[in-house]
Amino acid sequence: MRARGKRLRTIGAVLAALALLVGTIGSVQAKSTAKASSAAWWQPRPGEAKNWDWQIDEPYNVSQPRTMYDLDLWELADGGPNSYLEYPGHPELPRIQVEEGALAGKVDELHRRGAKVICYLDSGAYEHDENRADRHLFPGYKANLNDIPDNPSPPEPGSVIGWHTNDGQWPGERYLDIRRQSWPRFAHLIWARFALAKRLGCDGVEPDQNDMGPSSGNAPGWEMTDDDQIDWYLEVARQAHALGLSVGLKNGHDLSDRTRFPELVQAFDWALPEECVSLDQCDNLSPFIAAGKAVFAVDYTVNQRTDRRACQAHVSRDFDGIIKDEPPTSAFRKQCKP
């Protein structure tokens, strides 16, 4: 910005003013650069972590020298003094110890090897899984999964547990009521999971199953709008950053109205889209690349021809793509970007 004032009368004065201006600009630029480079959490740029892997089901194997591993939070729990869930502001809820998982101790091991560790968890879904130590705290919980209403029966009044996800591929996984009016009934349970990830040493989180607006094609059990979905995504990012955790946009890129998508690009540090090639949605992620943010694209293996086509699509868009088995395990991985 150029300041206005009295016209300088001498060349010397002009030069002095220019020198002062250049110095000031340089100082501001240096401060801005320092601020940008001293982020409190991991903000990967395209290509920075192209050698990554995603494993959220057995078998697990983290012996390979990867730049980043994305692993299930509950399996990373070590059962130690930091392995618990607590709920500040909710004295009626007990502190819950989280048992040791199959990957106990791997966060520290991977950090010693120089790898980043992202912790996968459901933030938009309930899981009727015995190793989810907090499942009984969700309003609408019942010991018998079959007693929780499912499609086409409406959720019970006051329940935040809706219909099954992914066409019933995971029978115990049900959408949560992410509409803003329901946040006070369950959001603190999700933020406690984020706090667990922080205590375990996770560098960031991959929060899943948040896309249930009409653009997603999913059926959560309640009337949702895309704004409901976006508002929840933004709160998820805000809560993760409040703990100093890196956070990725998991899916959620298929909005029919793109008006608010820039808000998501600004809020999240990276994106992890599933099947953007097979669903013809990869171009929706280009704003992340334009913003200098990595896109960890995943397409699932079918055959060599489709795998090759998916990789070509990833590489042409500067995505850090991989081809994986479904669900993602250590059994299959193909890195697209050399």
TrEMBL record:
Gene3D superfamilies reported for this sequence: Aldolase class I
Annotated signal peptide: 1-30
Gene Ontology MF annotations: hydrolase activity
Location of the Glycoside-hydrolase family GH114 TIM-barrel domain: 52-325
Keyword Endoplasmic reticulum: no
Source organism superkingdom: Bacteria
Keywords: Hydrolase, Signal
Protein's name according to its UniProt entry: Glycosyl hydrolase family 114
Pfam families recorded: Glyco_hydro_114
